[in-house]
Specification:
The protein is α/β, with parallel strands linked by helices. The chain folds into two domains: 235 residues, Rossmann fold, CATH 3.40.50; 170 residues, P-loop containing nucleotide triphosphate hydrolases (Rossmann fold, 3-Layer(aba) Sandwich). Helices cover 32% and strands 26% of the residues. The longest helix has 16 residues. It is globular, with a radius of gyration of 24 Å. It is found in: Cell membrane. It holds the Pfam family ABC_tran. Keywords: ATP-binding, Cell membrane, Membrane, Nucleotide-binding, Repeat, Translocase, Transport. It is a peripheral membrane protein.
Amino acid sequence: MSEYAIEMLGITKRFPGIIANDNITLQLKKGEIHALLGENGAGKSTLMSVLFGLYQPEEGEIRKDGKKVEIKDPNDANDLGIGMVHQHFKLVECFSVLDNIILGVETTKNGFLQKDGARKKVMELSQKYGLSVDPDAIIEDTTVGMQQRTEILKMLYRDNEILIFDEPTAVLTPQEIQELMQIMKNLAAEGKSILFITHKLGEIMQVADRCTVLRKGKYIGTVDIKDTNPEKLSAMMVGRDVNFVVEKDEANPGEVVLDVKDMVVGSKCHKNNAVNGVSLQVHRGEIVCIAGIDGNGQTEFVYGLSGLEPIKSGTITMNGKDITHMPIRERLTSGMSHIPEDRHKHGLVLDYSLEDNIVLQRYFEPQFTNKFGFLKRKEIRKYANRLIEQYDIRSGQGAVTKARSMSGGNQQKAIIAREIDKNPELLIAVQPTRGLDVGAIEHVHKQLVQARDAGKGVLLISLELDEVMNVSDRILVMYEGEIVGEFDPKKVTVEELGLYMAGSKRKETKSNE
């Protein structure tokens, strides 16, 4: 009997203009947590999609328990006990949690759905693995964390033995990440074998037994976690040493670029307001960070600022001009840039090419459109190619690649390039490094600091406490729609911030302690 639950031997997968997987071998032992690490576009998700039957490889073979298997589609994968939680969840938004879990493997009697047994099994699994869900909640009304737990229960409900997690922590809060790490350890202790795709070196050190590294579609090596450290892993991943410290000089705040007074934004989920009387200022030459646990009004606050949602009351002033009721395009042409939280929903038109996405907010400018209203395609291509090179945006067919076919990290790089290159007065960056590898994170942080040093105002919204502490010049903590504290990152501890983020402490008056 083979010691490996799964072996992928010599896998090669090609797409137009790119070899996504170039002769890759990956061996997963029974009962282990095996991390798959690599830069954005290194071929990790493609390799897992081959294992799950979403893609067919041109070369190589897959073995399960030592025997060669053919996986033509996800149904074959499920029959072999292989389940996958995708980076962008595959859930039906208007179905309940329970309906999503049983979809495709429903029990029926005389043509009628039998849900009682399914509900019982789901609740038992939920309790056993600490995956708290409300089976009757509609997916579109649930948090990202519950959607992820739904995806995991979907795998467990099908009695899958091999579990693939593709970037499972990219959209979770620090607390939810810790919960997930524990769930993964419990699953491995039960004898399940886990493949875990991530960019986050700390998570690999915390839960993985072994780690396989890919770079530009090629296999670099497999290491035992007990014999390595984050510095060695990052060097394997990007082919050079990465600086984990954000290098920046002291901030020199200038005049106020953004002034928000008593902003109130309603909530779509409950009758309380999502944002409740928030006032803040961002000066030129500083990075102000709003920290907080997801779901405390940060999203709605940014929607109000950028015009995606109307505000109930309050005023927003940018460069001394009242923009409270200004249309979105006018805000953007008046000097605002917005790196959105959800790159698929608000960041990109997925079926447009990369170059069209890059000029999405500027195509009407004389540089890109002639006096008769026709697009200057050559100029657009030239501009897109410059940004592709400058920001290392990797795609199979360059500027004409469809945004949908790019890796999540490269989609994010495209948005960041577009928003920063507009040379804004105010840059609103929401989770700008979500789903990026360490090399790309280093680049984005440098760009934010450069924008600050060029006299721009930067408003950063982040759930990553390391990012909050390292990048910001001033930290505001948001809890239940209100600013509950203001801090200097050099004088506050992560533990202290955590207490404010959890609502255990609050400052009644603004200060700069």
